[in-house]
């Protein structure tokens, strides 16, 4: 008899103590020695077996000790009365096959059969891995205590609902008192909105016209200079060829040719400066677009009154329903007509706001498309840059085999590089597996967010076998893939290596401009 188990009394009266949330114990789980420790069937495998038998467990947790798998597992059921029913069904099923707790404790030859029972007070108070797990993850409660606790919760819920109804009634009165004030403000807001839209449209048209004219002028001058330089280059090559054929070059001719080459080089440098001017102009246009986008966002903020208008319409609809239920008196009918007239006006104003909002959405999407195109061009143009640069292109989600080699060299004396290549290949396949989703959704101040599931069996096995460094290497690649691509593939991204984050388009352009300045200074 194992020291952590004692015989359990039969019977399920309301004062009998159970471990809550409801838990069951599976004993005599087959184990085997793998040379280092005892290993046995996983919790997910046991859970699937119990589910197929109709016990509906939430999870199954194998219990381990210093020798490995202990041969026990704790079955967790849902913490409601359905979970209690499944737990009793689980215990009765094993007892009907003479594999309950008493059968387990009294049997000398158990073979490979599983034994099971519901966790109660004697299991909770026992020593060893079972008692430790139950005391850590549950409490002792009787059925009568749980029923009394449920009753207290229901009474509290009824009380809270009554208070909520009272608060809603008070809030309704407050909203009705603010109706007139809101109606007066709406007309003023609409006038301000019309003035802002007119001013905004005039400014946009002027900016667009100036930008087009300036860019067209610069491009025309650049093409003209380019054609002139090309003609000069061809003329110099032709003269050089003639002089070589004649073999009558003298010092004066060589000096003249050298002078012409220098002039041509200076012209090419001037052409490069013109190219830089074009790049600066593109940057200025980008800044103008950013300014335009900020103005759009500011206008959208001011149009948040659309939501207030929608709430006002819903309130008026509610007031209409209230007035209809108050009777057919003359005053009531007059008040109802006034509310319906106001509701019609609000709905017309809402339609105008919807049209304006759609126009703003279209403009913002166009600006986003242009920004994404610029980002793509930057990525394509910087792929040849070294990863040691401040701003460069990073392959998101790619595993670094050198990091794996550093890990395996600390663990293996021989074949460390082979082990690293094998480990890298295995985890690259895991990362591309669409059926593996080791994430959990957590709620933050900014809304729902996906994080690495610290209970994922595959990742925990990696951490246990190869350490924290391998775990962080794989989880970082997972997060990069999950953020950059919905298909769990490797993508390229503009990256700020100094701050270890995605680089903005502004940072990419600034970096290129700085490189041009440095290159220009070195040539001088």
UniProtKB/TrEMBL annotation:
Query: Which segments does the entry list as coiled coil?
Result: 158-366
Q: Where is the Factor of DNA methylation 1-5/IDN2 domain?
A: 394-522
Q: Where are the transmembrane segments?
A: none
In terms of superkingdom, the source organism counts as: Eukaryota
Give an example GO biological process: gene silencing by siRNA-directed DNA methylation
Record-annotated XS domain positions: 15-125
User: What is an example of a Pfam family matching this protein?
Assistant: XS
Which InterPro entries is this protein grouped with? FDM1-5/IDN2, FDM1-5/IDN2_XH, XS_domain, XS_domain_sf
Query: What is the official name of this protein in its record?
Result: Factor of DNA methylation 4-like
Gene giving rise to this polypeptide: LOC107816933
